[in-house]
């Protein structure tokens, strides 16, 4: 794909080994980096994308999957951002397989959280009848990142949040010793508290959450 080859070429030309080391350390050395800071990466990415607009629009799904097969983390970010734009309100039902693939591939909080909110969340807005099936599968999975995505997918739903589902998922995973699950519970509840603080307070008071989850949930409630 000429878009990907061009993107890799320009990213390599703009790589910064010193910054790459710092980024890799921040991400616990799970990934390689070119060392391109976010603002500059997005500027380069936007330019290359514009030059290959037709190719990206026609092959967005395949391009995203190929980008996720690469080593450098910046390319993974680009894959997600392509899908956020190209698939918005244009999802197909079978795209849930792609979303699941992205969640479980090269998994870490920085990719999973964006996918959960902006891909999974948007997909289920378009196909609400799929919510029960998808979220049951993800929340029952042995993959922790799918569990986290199920808890977080309603971030940004505000008044459209299915509170019963949110609370049920938080309760279901409340005994988890996984840091990223405990943190997700707190984050999801804290976000919903911006819309319905009294409901979140009641939930926290009547459920035995882990200290981190409870602290995060009530952080911004006065």
UniProtKB/TrEMBL annotation:
- Which Pfam families does the entry link to? DNA_alkylation
Q: Which InterPro entries match?
A: ARM-type_fold, DNA_alkylation
Q: Which SUPFAM superfamilies match?
A: ARM repeat
Protein name in UniProt: 3-methyladenine DNA glycosylase AlkD
Q: Which organism is it from?
A: Flavobacterium arsenatis
